[in-house]
Sequence to fold (225 residues):
Amino acid sequence: MRLTVLGGSAASPNTGMGCAGFLVETASARLVLDLGPGTLQELRRHTDFRTIDAVIISHMHVDHVLDLLALRHALAYNPVPAPRPVPVWLPPGGINVLTRATAPFDACDRPGRFSETVDVAEYDPAGHLTIGEVDVTFAPAVHDIPAWAMRVHVPGDADLGYTGDTGPTAPLDSFFAGVGVLVAEATLLDPGDGAIGERGSLTAREAGELAATAGAQTLMLTHMW
Fold:
């Protein structure tokens, strides 16, 4: 399994880096975890964006999904057509959010021109996704809106864990137990004065504590200012 960071900024792109986005490549599949603003151009540096096997979205905040609009536009107007619609997996309720967000742009062109470039569905967080040899499972995060952490498994390789956006009260240590790499958000410079259960983000220390408790081999911090 090969992991490429497409972006790691929090809320909005930092200079020279987009928001949340990660390319995962194996012998049989290429998938993208989140596609925030500024990540599509980085994706195009590393692979043929027209033929990726899946985009999987952790939650429907702008900094994790905005380049889905850019992806649809790029696929619609690219002079080399994609061989098939790109599969996009959204969390429960995500289709409604995406439909409302894209409606004004869809109305500006031929009906279906943009929507037919992607094959959009919602995943069941209680189940799993199988994409080639890759198996993706989910666990609920604690955030301002429903959000899901992910674990990526490939036979014969160490697993990859991705927190998405989450607060410290999410019981994710067992979900990430023994992962080879844990990509964990570290949005907050300090925990602040609010109740811990009201927070939907981690500090770097809390991300480190999660990695240590889970027994992750490597911790990579993301979602930073």
In short: The helical segments are 39-46, 62-65, 67-77, 94-106, 204-214. The domain at 2-222 is CATH 3.60.15.10 (Metallo-beta-lactamase; Chain A). The CA atoms of residues 23 and 163 lie 15 Å apart.
